[in-house]
Inverse folding.
């Protein structure tokens, strides 16, 4: 019953995104709802629904200190299986951000929680309203730039994507394209149905596991709930245009798979996997992303969002940036004073390690 209401409100947001849209939310609830047991709030004005929100409260740990953390919408799952929801916001009609934020704060009220964690919120009216709705609480914010490609601006100049890149980056992309093309024709294949899309996802997962294990780091593609989430999202929502998977091949050999999320005329670069068995000087990632962007230019998409992450290639292959904010509102707790002291001590140790 909530789905049509949520879909309508998400579509009227000031900054709608794939991560607040019905496909992502419905899939998240189906996979994580049994463990988090979230509450679904519907906020009305004069009997008319103007906002909705998912509120989860779970126990996290910092320096082994337990924290009861409240999160909004599709966030709050265990880090080991997180689906990396970003571009979060208040799901509400425009100009109702403040009353909806105040209603959420009133709901949390005297509940048993230590902090409210807002993860990867887009700067703007939604975040401002939430700041105003938790007066008297300390707030810690982390700001970071996320990078994107302005496809509409490129299309308006009637030129190609490479022409918008810096000369050194453009040279690097062309070198990769020239080398791979010298072996066999390079092509982009877009999944045509859920079965093909799921096969591409499994190939991407295999690439990711191999790369992460070679680097001896944990791999989210080993988490069953993470895999269940994306298999469900692709199976149930591919035909409605919520996801897109592309395989970049050299001859008959796939060298990269890109997994995009689609929201209107904005596409999000969500996951990728590449075959790194060629020479180290080659970059299958650079090849795959640049060809994917050239393909998207032909489809009428306006914006290709690289999402967050510290990988330098996102900055180099972008044409612009925007800010996202993660904020934590803290109740006055002794445990937070202990955490802050330990954070400062850890920072001093790393700055001035013992000889």
């Amino acid at each position: 019953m909530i789905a049509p209401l949520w879909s309508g409100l998400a579509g009227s947001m000031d900054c709608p995104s794939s991560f607040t849209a019905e496909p992502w939310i419905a899939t998240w609830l189906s996979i994580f709802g049994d463990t988090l047991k979230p509450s679904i709030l519907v906020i009305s004005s004069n009997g008319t629904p103007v906002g909705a929100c998912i509120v989860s409260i779970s126990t996290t740990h910092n320096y082994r200190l337990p924290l009861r953390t409240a999160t909004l919408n599709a966030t709050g799952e265990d880090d080991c299986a997180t689906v990396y929801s970003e571009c979060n916001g208040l799901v509400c009609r425009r100009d109702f951000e403040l009353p909806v934020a105040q209603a959420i704060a009133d709901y949390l009220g005297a509940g048993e929680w230590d902090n409210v964690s807002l993860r990867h919120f887009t700067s703007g009216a939604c975040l401002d309203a939430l700041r105003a709705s938790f007066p008297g609480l300390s707030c810690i914010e982390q700001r970071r730039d996320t990078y994107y490609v302005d496809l509409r601006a490129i299309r308006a100049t009637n030129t190609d994507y490479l022409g918008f890149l810096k000369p050194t980056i453009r040279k690097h992309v062309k070198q990769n394209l020239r080398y791979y093309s010298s072996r066999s024709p390079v092509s982009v294949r877009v999944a045509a149905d859920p079965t093909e899309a799921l096969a591409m996802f499994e190939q991407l997962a295999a690439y990711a596991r191999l790369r992460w294990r070679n680097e001896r780091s944990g791999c989210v593609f080993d988490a069953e709930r993470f895999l269940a989430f994306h298999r469900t999202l692709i199976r149930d929502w591919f035909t409605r245009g919520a996801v897109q998977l592309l395989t970049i091949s050299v001859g008959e050999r796939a060298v990269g798979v890109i997994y995009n999320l689609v929201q209107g005329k904005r596409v999000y670069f969500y996951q990728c996997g590449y075959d790194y068995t060629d020479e180290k000087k080659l970059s299958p990632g650079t090849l795959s992303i640049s060809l994917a962007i050239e393909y998207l230019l032909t489809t009428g998409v306006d914006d290709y969002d690289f999402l967050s992450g510290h990988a330098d290639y996102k900055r180099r292959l972008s044409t612009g940036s925007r800010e996202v904010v993660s904020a934590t509102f803290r109740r006055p707790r002794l445990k937070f004073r202990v955490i802050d002291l330990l954070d400062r001590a850890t920072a001093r140790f790393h700055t001035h390690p013992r000889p």
Summary: The longest helix spans residues 194-214. Residues 29 and 74 are 8 Å apart (CA to CA). The longest strand covers residues 48-62.
